[in-house]
Design brief:
Helix content: 10-25%
GO cellular component, one term: external side of plasma membrane
Number of strands: 17
Shape: elongated
Order of helices and strands: HEEEEHEEEEHHEEEEEEEEE
CATH class of the largest domain: Alpha Beta
CATH superfamily of the largest domain: MHC class I-like antigen recognition-like
CATH architecture of the largest domain: 2-Layer Sandwich
Radius of gyration: 24 Å
Strand content: 35-45%
Largest sheet: 8 strands, antiparallel
GO biological process, one term: immune response
Strand order of the largest sheet: 4-3-2-1-5-6-7-8
Number of helices: 4
Organism: Carassius auratus
Structural class: alpha+beta
InterPro entries: Ig-like_dom, Ig-like_dom_sf, Ig-like_fold, Ig/MHC_CS, Ig_C1-set, MHC_class-I_related, MHC_I-like_Ag-recog, MHC_I-like_Ag-recog_sf
Number of domains: 2
Distance between the termini: 34 Å
Keywords: Glycoprotein, Immunoglobulin domain, Signal
């Protein structure tokens, strides 16, 4: 019974990995952080991230957003709230004066939109504006109702104030609508095909075993399906590095498996990525 359950769980996980590789996902997130420390002015940072790449950042010295990657000039403008407004909210929530806070506090915000497209044509769109305070969920914005949803008992007073700021809420609704319109027509031209390398070596501690390794690198976007197979069947007893970033913004993944040298059959590295027109089998070991 236990083996049947484990096999069932493995099949579900494998199916979910296949779906992740098949669907196409895009997003843009504007991330804000304000941190107060005792006896210092609050520190503010903000970045815009699209499909795992930072495309903008806010310069505290120059007082405006700076484009990091020129290829993203058509991305939506930053949300309407200013740096000073965000720092004022932190001071209000923290009971800080204009010059100092007596305890450390952090206010965080993520605002943006996401798109998922599935092979059968289904499209999921999501727009959001979410806040966290002192590492707890705080509030989120309902753009249809133009009202705020409290996620924490400490947010009740802030919700009442923000619900009354009808002009600001209208601007936020317009920003989120602009964001979803942009992401719906988004064409990711930055896809990079994976470069796949396969190796085989004797196991160090067991001369009767062989170690097969598949390295996939240089691919973009991040989502990928990669498996080492025996006679077209995925091997589950493998070690994986998980997806890791490269210095150039692309990604890499490494998987290896230890097999018996006496077992006859064909092993291959199966890779499926959105940059490929169809899944590819690399480096057959026999």
């Amino acid at each position: 019974m236990c083996r049947m359950f484990l096999l069932f769980v493995f099949i579900i996980l494998l199916f979910n990995c296949f779906l992740d590789a098949q669907r196409e996902k895009h997003y843009i997130h504007y991330k804000f952080t304000a941190l107060s420390r005792a006896d210092t002015f609050p520190e503010f940072s903000a970045v815009a991230v699209t499909d795992d790449r930072q495309i903008k950042h806010y310069s505290n010295e120059e007082g405006h957003w700076i484009l990091t990657e020129d290829d993203w000039i058509n991305a939506p403008e930053a949300p309407p709230d200013s740096r000073d407004w965000f720092l004022h909210q932190l001071n209000t929530l923290s009971n800080c004066t204009d010059s100092q806070c007596f305890e450390p506090h952090v206010l965080q915000r993520v605002i943006g939109c996401e798109l998922e497209m599935f092979p059968e044509g289904t499209v999921n769109l999501r727009a959001f504006d979410e806040y966290g305070f002192d590492r707890d969920d705080f509030m989120s914005f309902d753009s249809d109702a133009q009202q705020w949803i409290e996620k924490n008992p400490k947010a009740k007073e802030t919700k009442m104030k923000w619900d009354q700021q009808t002009e600001r809420n209208q601007h936020l609704k317009y920003f989120l609508k602009t964001c979803t319109d942009w992401i719906s027509s988004f064409n990711n031209t930055k896809k990079s095909k994976p470069d796949v390398h396969t190796t085989s070596r004797k196991a160090r501690n067991d001369q009767n075993k062989q170690v097969l390794t598949c390295l996939t690198t240089g691919f973009y976007p991040r989502d990928i399906e990669m498996n080492i197979r025996f006679n077209k069947t995925v091997l589950k007893d493998h070690r994986s590095s998980g997806v890791r970033p490269n210095d150039d913004g692309s990604f890499q993944m490494r998987s290896s498996v230890k097999i018996s040298r006496s077992q006859e059959g064909i092993y291959d590295c199966f890779v499926n990525h959105s940059s490929l027109t169809k899944p590819v089998e690399w480096g057959e070991w026999t």
